[in-house]
Every structure is written in structure tokens, then in C-alpha cells.
Amino acid sequence: MAVLDITGAVASNIKILQGELKNEKELIEVLKKRLTKKEFKVFVAMEEGIDESKIADMVKMDEDGVAETYQTVIKKLNQEKLKQELTL
């Protein structure tokens, strides 16, 4: 499996992106700071296309919890304050 393009993953989940995203390393730092460890793991795994049942085992929650956590991350990515931190 290929390494996740975090820039593409973030950009594809932000509805209205104004400005250019920071570089990959800085994006990861911001995401790790602003998301819980579980949210970050779920986001990365979902974007890599890993099956929800496998993700559920990895983070020790049920599949519904994985879907809810992913949706929470998407909502956070679309908050203005976080979008400002993610852009140059």
C-alpha cells in the first residue's frame, strides 16, 4: 500500500479551502496537535482505504464509532480556526 498523501487527503475533505496548504510535515504536526490520537489514526486509516472493521480493531472501538470519529475529523477540518492553521 502506498504512503498516504496527507496534503491531498486534507484538501479533499475541506469544503472551502482558501489559500495554499502547508507542507506535509507541518500539516501532520497541526493535525496531531488539534486531533486526538484516535481521531488522527482513524482519519489516516480511512484515507488509506483500510476497511472499517480493521480500523475498529486497531483503535479498539466498533465500526459505528469509527464512522462517527471520521465524521468528527471532517467537521474539525472544516472549522475556520483549524483551516487557518493548516494554510500558509
Give Rg in angstroms. Answer: 13 Å
Number of helices: 6
What distance lies between the first and last C-alpha atoms, to the nearest angstrom? 30 Å
The helix fraction, in percent, is: 55-70%
Structural class: mainly alpha
Oligomer status: single chain
* Percent of sequence in beta strands: under 5%
Low-pLDDT segments, ≥5 res:
none
Q: Could you tell me the mean pLDDT?
A: 94
Number of strands: 0
What is the ordering of alpha helices and beta strands? Answer: HHHHHH
Gross morphology is elongated
Please describe the biggest sheet, giving its number of strands, its sense, and whether it closes into a barrel. none
List the domain count as a whole number. Answer: 1
Tell me what you see in this structure.
There is one protein chain. This protein has helices at residues 6-13, 24-34, 37-47, 52-59, 63-77, 80-86. The protein has 88 residues and is mostly helical. The protein has one domain (6-10, 21-86). Helix 3 crosses helix 5 and helix 4 (52-59) packs across helix 5 (63-77). The protein starts with 5 loop residues before the first helix and ends with a helix.
Topology, please?
Blueprint lengths: L5 H8 L10 H11 L2 H11 L4 H8 L3 H15 L2 H7 L2
Helix pairs in contact: 3-5, 4-5
Overview in brief:
By secondary structure, this protein is an all-alpha fold. It contains six helices and no strands. It has helices at 6-13, 24-34, 37-47, 52-59, 63-77, 80-86.
